[in-house]
Amino acid sequence: MTNPKPYNPNDYDRPSVTVDVVLFTILDGTLQVLLIKRKLDPFAGQWAFPGGFVRITESLDDAAYRELQEETGVAREAVYLEQLYTFGDPDRDPRMRIITVAYFALVGADKIPQLRSGDDAADARWFSAYNPPPLAFDHSEILAYAITRLRYKLEYSAVGFQLLPETFTLRELQQAYEIVLDEKLDKRNFRNKLRKADVVEPTPHFRDSGGRPARLYRFKADAVAEVKTRRLFP
Amino acid sequence: MTNPKPYNPNDYDRPSVTVDVVLFTILDGTLQVLLIKRKLDPFAGQWAFPGGFVRITESLDDAAYRELQEETGVAREAVYLEQLYTFGDPDRDPRMRIITVAYFALVGADKIPQLRSGDDAADARWFSAYNPPPLAFDHSEILAYAITRLRYKLEYSAVGFQLLPETFTLRELQQAYEIVLDEKLDKRNFRNKLRKADVVEPTPHFRDSGGRPARLYRFKADAVAEVKTRRLFP
DNA sequence: TACTGATAGTGTGACAATAACACTATTCCA
DNA sequence: TGGAATAGTGTTATTGTCACACTATCAGTA
Q1: A164-219 — its CATH code?
Q2: Phi and psi (nearest 5°) for B70?
Q3: 3-state secondary structure of B181
Q4: What fold characterizes domain A9-155?
Q5: Is the CB of A155 under 7 A from strand C?
Q6: From the list A18, A49, A57, which residue is nearest B90 (CB)?
Q7: Half-sphere exposure (CA, 13 Å, Cβ side) for B160?
Q8: Over chain A (234 residues), what is each successive 10-residue block's mean pLDDT?
Q9: Which residues from chain B sit within 8 angstroms of residue A101, using beta carbons?
């Protein structure tokens, strides 16, 4: 980007740039990730994240939203999306140099009616994020990184709500946290802290669940949902 | 990255890819960032981060280390470096589409003997990170993001030591934290917490500093220097 | 040699956050 | 109407955080 070399990118072979989107949801009590079956080589028949080449006039974010829309039908407004990391190992694609900007995305299970976990005929399917099929390219590495980021964000922000439908019971919310963090949480502490954080509000509706019906809550739109980190030093 | 479109990147104009490195140190009691004066248009005469095109056979990290070495003489072993974020707005460079993978780097002030703050003749100079000169491209935005990341990392990891010489007094360490976080810290609390974190060890040497000499410490190589974040939910 | 200026170094107590823990309430169904 | 199933609620012990002030050691100088 600077001197003293003359500034002419054509002096170099140029890598290609793609975006790949790791889209999570919670479905059937597990964390699921959306994968698409590759039809062509390399890795034909294997599964990969939705993604594709960045167009010359669109931003990286736009490219990610566009690929998500094109390949999975998930609308821009329905997802939480943020840049994850850029993977650029020279031989991550066996044919040519491709640098991919990976994105991390969350969607509520109610926003994706057309896809069904277990529908093997489809090109696009949800898979367990912890037990995915063999993935193309370096997508296993990307998935591991995305899961780490998800856990991490869950602890200090309120993105977790993006994994749930618009309204949810407190039990469903707690289970979502337990599924992602892979640990059991205490019901009373969870609710106490939730109350203090002031990020959900009750709706007048209830969900039947075999016993006493549970009140449905929604995420408070105006909630400031970050938390101070505990400092290593004061 | 996937189907069903035929997989041929030459169908699209390709963006170019660069790396840019935001290198920080602490010098003369302030947080400083290394900038290089551009000789050519666009933005000739303005300042920019060290960086350049990613070669077709090198990884992104390697490109960042290489540019740092080439443009500033800072050796790979002497710096802490991590990927920051990828900036890819279509018009961030006025001439053509350039996507840049920004890196974030820290170096101890003792590792850079050849550069001097205030030496205006040089191509490469240290500037106050909080009061930089006008920067080329979107580098102001990148700098702001890097400072945010630096503050953030300081709070839950031990990267702060990378900003100091090999050995340092506890006062110098505290001042480094105060400079970066831009707030005053309590001496006793700082030392108490440092003791509990168990990340530094005393050396047998002292530094003269006008009054009672201060013991020099070094960072413990085996220190596990992450801290649990305070959770939004238990 | 003792006094002064300058910086190094050390501990405690009040307050806030966290974590462990068990019972009552409401609904459905047999 | 009693039992199965799930919802919902508060208190206490422990731990972490934060505010706060004095003694120690060195250099220089009267």
Answers
A1: 1.10.10.10
A2: -65, -45
A3: helix
A4: Nucleoside Triphosphate Pyrophosphohydrolase (3.90.79)
A5: no
A6: A57
A7: 28
A8: 44 84 94 93 92 96 96 92 97 95 94 59 86 97 97 88 94 96 95 92 94 94 61 58
A9: 86, 88, 99
